[in-house]
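User: Can you predict the 3D structure for this chain?
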Amino acid sequence: MGFLFSSTKKEKIIAIFDIGSGSIGGAIVRIPIQAQSIPTILASVRTDFVFRKDLDFDVFFNDMIRALDTTARLLHKKGAGAPEEIFCVLASPWYISQTRVVRMLKETPFLFSRRIADDLLKRELTALVDVYNKKYEGTGSTPLMIEHHVIGVKLNGYTVDDPIGKKTKSLEMDVVISLSPKQCVEKIRETIDSIYPGIKGSFASFMTSSYLAVRDHFVSPESYLLVDVGSEVTDVAVVSGGVLRSSLSFPFGKNTIFKYICTKQNIELRDAQELFSLYCTGTLAPAKKQAHEALFESIKHSWSGAFYQSVADLKYSLGLPATVFLTADADSILWFAQVLESESYIQSLLLSHRSNVISLSGSQFINVCNVRDGSCDPFLMIEAIAFTKRQNS
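Assistant: Here is the predicted structure, written as structure tokens:
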């Protein structure tokens, strides 16, 4: 009669840390075990990095760790629950990611198994480590895999949702593999462990998390772009046929704009942020708007030019998808959306020559992620949704 007293766990508490290039977000989240339920953010905090006009990577890394420590301490003080697991999501530049197509072809049918998948993944990981070592040659940085996902499988040329145990002559797997410097991962773990000791943790990239959240939530075309504008870096990914095909990043983010305004206008950061905000929202006085028009046109062409030069290499056949899902901080997302929609040479890259930009805010995810305390932080909501999907897949 033991079954009368048994219970099945229906949820667990985790802590999520959103590790970006300009701020660190943290949240205590209740994750449902049942697939039909949705996560609930019980408490959240966010800490900005120290703003610096000159970017030195060692200083930048230390600023990130300090912001992480502050975020973890503030989140712990919230007393929203004791997490059973830590989930760290890295944005650029804290990781590199590649989508690789793994193929196997045999003359006689073979049974597709997890062992075959694992062996092929190991081969691709070795190849990606070589790419990482070449990119960071001379830095003494050791790569560490933080995630790998099989996001699509074709057997005999046809997409199969449940391929394990099926016979085939040809196999094609779309695999996303992300790596981060070992020193970076270890320092993040050490910092969090000082506040939340002895709790197991895992890592993921924000781009993959964004892909998982958008793919299943929006009734969207099978092909689209994911654009994430951080404080120092912009990430772009191409989804084609429902599969995350490729991604890249370029060093131009929100803070690049603020630094440019500070230099050109000889003003402090706070004044540059206010000027940018007033211009974006259309509340800048007409005379001041006219006086600064050339400044903002220059900024627009600089970012869109960097976007164009980076993304042009990702063109597929006739062009890139026209639908763009955009994530950026609330104080700048409107401006970046307008640039993506208005710049003619960005439109020239697109299949339809006209972009459809969907700016992702927290309110768009409120029906798939509850928020009990704090603001509807879209980054933390996306990551809570992604973790839930991984948990229940």
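The radius of gyration is 22 Å. Residues 1-7 have pLDDT under 50 and may be disordered.
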